[in-house]
Design brief:
Helix 6 packs across helix 8. It contains eight helices and eleven strands. By secondary structure, it is α/β, with parallel strands linked by helices.
Length: 225
């Protein structure tokens, strides 16, 4: 499950892309202007950005170039009706990682999303393991041995986030920024409540918690697993 920012002013196309990626278990945030897209990238973190070339306010190329100049590393896919090689080159030189020309099949976009999220710092459909816990993102499944552990979507997203970042500790604020929608009313208490429910489902009595709290650093997968 990846957190994806979609910046597209064609609202009909936006609905199609958002619904399609949501079915792939991604968390999709949508804005319709270049100004809104720029602001989201200024204040929030995402795993992938899908950015239209022509937008009200700022163009996708301007947003992309500014974001890269600030040191932003999140993968960016440009959407555009521009198909000339020179225009593609211009978009890629601005910092885009890939390019999809309209009109396109959703299968093509899905393939390009998967390809970018397979990078070491991104997301993949590979099986994840922490001790005897096994998480399969592609089929939304968590098991311990033969037992399937049923998690709510946010619990699953939280566990997947920790398992994909083994060895790293995150504050509650950083986790909210990566796992919860940027425009939500969520608070650190929301995270702690979700974590408590998750621990109740995945921890074993008498054994250390799968997700541990490290004073002064935050939360992480227990390195002993």
């Amino acid at each position: 499950m990846a957190k994806i920012l979609l910046v597209e002013d064609d609202k009909d196309l936006t609905v199609i892309i958002e619904d399609s990626l949501t079915l792939q278990k991604h968390l999709v945030e949508v804005v319709h202007t270049g100004t809104e897209g720029r602001e989201r990238l200024l204040f929030f973190e995402f795993d992938l950005v899908i950015l239209d070339w022509q937008l009200p306010g700022l163009s996708g190329v301007e947003i992309c170039k500014e974001y890269r100049n600030r040191g932003g590393t999140t993968p960016i896919i440009m959407l555009t009706g521009k198909g000339a090689i020179q225009e593609k080159e211009f978009g890629l030189d601005a910092g885009a990682d890939d390019y999809v020309t309209k009109p396109f099949e959703m299968r093509e976009l899905h393939a390009r999303v998967r390809a970018l999220l397979r990078r070491p710092t991104g997301y993949t459909d590979n099986v994840l393991k922490a001790g005897n816990l096994v998480l399969e993102p592609g089929i939304f499944r968590v098991t311990r041995g033969e037992e399937e552990i049923r998690l709510l979507p946010k619990e699953f997203a939280l566990l997947e986030f920790f398992m994909r970042h083994k060895g790293q500790a995150f504050t509650s604020e950083a986790i909210l920024n990566r796992v919860w929608p940027s425009d939500s009313e969520s608070t650190p208490e929301s995270f702690r409540t979700c974590l408590k429910r998750l621990r109740q489902k995945i921890d074993l009595e008498g054994q250390p918690s799968v997700v541990e709290h490290v004073h002064g650093l935050g939360y992480r997968i227990n390195p002993s697993l």
